[in-house]
Write a structure and sequence with these properties.
Strand content: 15-25%
Largest sheet: 8 strands, parallel, barrel
Strand order of the largest sheet: 1-2-3-4-5-6-7-8
Bound molecules: D-xylitol-5-phosphate, zinc ion
Number of helices: 8
Radius of gyration: 16 Å
Distance between the termini: 6 Å
Helix content: 25-40%
């Protein structure tokens, strides 16, 4: 399984954390951006984000926890990210935003909160590269994994095999060795990890644990 590491919460400062992830065995740097409206916290200043990440080498996996995600796509695309994921619940014109992100040559993802049923994704399943299943309420690192989300991952996995959809499945929130294995068995392709990796002196040891378990 691929591991995307979020620098949202860490024992090191932001700059060192980004640098440590960039030089680790992680597959992606997961960039959590929050607007203070869609989620209570606000950590989002586009210029600062661009400055923080402009010299990194690893593929960027951007997670927009914002309303009006379309507003940020132009500027963020200057970072040449691998993927931009926005929320189904963000009240945007979903089709338009999918097209906008794709038009930049960037993979597009849709994230769904724990209480959002997968049936609401129906119209978009042919057009998206990835579904980000939130296994905690979006907004903060260090929360507990919601085990009900395993069924959701299994359902999305069955659905793609039955209907030949090409989307990947990523899971975000509360990942550790135990929950990563559950996600892997349910069919996830990627897990996003924040505190399990960044609250540890040795990032690579933690990342390698997750990789070994889900091989
Ligand atoms: C939660 C964020 C996550 C979070 C993961 O709103 O989207 O990416 O940082 O952190 P942990 O792994 O600590 O749950
Ligand atoms: Zn995230």
């Amino acid at each position: 399984m691929k591991i995307s590491v979020s620098y949202l919460s860490s024992i090191f400062d932001k700059k060192s954390t980004i640098n440590l992830i960039d030089n680790s065995n992680a597959d992606y740097i997961h960039v959590d951006l929050m607007d203070g409206k869609f989620v209570p916290k606000n950590n989002f200043n586009v210029r600062e984000v661009i400055n923080d990440l402009k010299d990194t080498n690893k593929p960027l996996d951007i997670h927009l926890m914002t309303f009006e995600p379309e507003k940020y796509v132009d500027e963020l695309s200057t970072l040449n990210p691998a993927r931009i994921t926005f929320h189904l619940e963000s009240n945007t014109n979903i089709e338009k935003t999918i097209k906008l992100i794709k038009s930049k040559g960037i993979e597009v993802g849709i994230a769904i909160k724990p209480n959002t049923d997968i049936m609401y994704l129906d119209n978009y399943l042919n057009d998206i590269d990835i579904i980000l299943v939130m296994s905690v309420e979006p907004g903060a690192g260090g929360q507990r994994f919601m085990f009900d989300m395993i069924d959701k991952i299994e359902d999305l996995n069955d659905l793609r095999y039955n209907k030949n959809y090409l989307y990947k499945i990523s899971v975000d929130g509360g990942i550790n060795e135990y929950t990563a294995l559950k996600c892997h068995k349910a069919g996830a392709d990627i897990v996003v990890s924040g505190s399990y990796v960044c609250h540890h002196e040795n990032f690579n040891a933690q990342i390698n644990n997750l990789k070994r378990i889900t091989k």
